[in-house]
Design goal:
CATH topology: BirA Bifunctional Protein, domain 2
Distance between the termini: 44 Å
CATH class: Alpha Beta
Radius of gyration: 19 Å
Strand content: 15-25%
Order of helices and strands: HEEHHEEHEEHEHHHHEEEH
Strand order of the largest sheet: 8-7-9-10
CATH superfamily: Bira Bifunctional Protein, Domain 2
Number of helices: 10
Largest sheet: 4 strands, mixed
Number of strands: 10
Helix content: 25-40%
Number of domains: 1
Structural class: alpha+beta
CATH architecture: 2-Layer Sandwich
Shape: globular
Length: 300
């Protein structure tokens, strides 16, 4: 008997009814906040993700389903939705239209990693992108929207882990401080993190193999923010306070993709134990520029 591929699964009745309920709730909420649906291909050029996500990330180094087509072009099954949405945004010159442009999408994504509870090689994701607005109010709107979605789905005991990782003006100094602090403990780090020290030490903060006490002792990005980034972060937190959205400052939160700048966040639940993150995202002020577009600021 031929069975499904490892790390994938069928969604059959009656379970599919639950999926339809979740999808309808999330799309209805996104539309109410002014977001429109966008659909991008399941396959993309490999360069799109190596350029945007970063060569030193686990996704690009270990997890992408990459293959040549019959003409030798390097293609991948999409591992995430942000870069693909930005590619479509530029390819169809939507940047010439009034901003912000606000999209939502859902579909299958693929990462080659060891299947485990809540994590499969083909996974289904819902995402939103808000392009063309610099204000921290846009960051707060996205957080408010996803909290509303989860609440409408009946989830409770939720809060937001939030951090600012700065931008190209202030992050170099923070990286230098991280490298100096980590150099003292280099022999204790895993092989991947010893390599990350030179190219992207922020990724070490996201490593699940390192001693949590060591990671907590490292310099905090919030202490190295430039004036603009600090003001952006304080305005975001003030807005979350006004919206009565519960949050915690998580100085180890960096997310796993290189394109993030300033705001990063995760929504967590007290009811899920160790794997408590339901969703996450962040601002990506330089991604459009890296993909060949105009030097305009864009958040997520």
């Amino acid at each position: 008997m031929i069975k499904s591929v490892k790390g994938t699964s069928d969604i059959a009745p009656p379970e599919v009814l639950l999926w339809q309920h979740v999808e309808k709730t999330m799309t209805t909420t996104a539309k109410a906040y002014g977001y429109e649906e966008i659909r991008t291909p399941t396959i993309e050029m490999e360069e799109l993700f190596s350029t945007s996500i970063g060569q030193g990330t686990d996704i690009v180094e270990k997890e992408m389903y990459a293959f040549p087509d019959k003409k030798g072009r390097h293609l991948v099954l999409r591992p995430e939705g942000t870069a693909a949405t930005c590619r479509a945004y530029l390819e169809h010159q939507m940047n010439l239209q009034p901003s912000p442009a606000k999209f939502y999408y859902m579909g299958s994504f693929f990462r080659y990693e060891q299947p485990q509870s809540g994590r499969k090689r083909e996974f289904h994701s819902f995402g939103v992108e808000a392009l063309g607005e610099q204000s921290p109010l846009q960051d707060a709107e996205v957080i408010d929207m996803v909290m509303t979605m989860l609440s409408r789905l009946g989830l409770s005991h939720l809060s937001v882990d939030v951090n600012s990782i700065g931008d190209d003006n202030c992050r170099p100094a923070y990286k230098d401080a991280l490298r100096a602090a980590l150099a003292i403990h280099e022999s204790q780090l895993c092989e991947d993190c010893r390599r990350r020290m030179s190219d992207n030490p922020l990724r070490i903060l996201d490593c699940k193999r390192e001693d949590p006490a060591l990671l907590e002792s490292l310099p905090k990005s919030a202490d190295y923010l430039c004036t603009d980034c600090e003001d952006h972060f304080h305005r975001l937190l003030s807005t979350l306070d006004s919206l009565k959205i519960p949050y915690h400052l998580n100085h180890r939160l960096v997310r796993g993709l290189d394109y993030y700048t300033r705001t990063v966040f995760e929504v967590v639940s007290e009811d899920l134990g160790a794997q408590n993150a339901l969703l996450g995202g962040g601002r990506y002020d330089y991604l459009i520029r890296h993909l060949g577009g105009p030097a305009t600021l864009f958040p997520f």
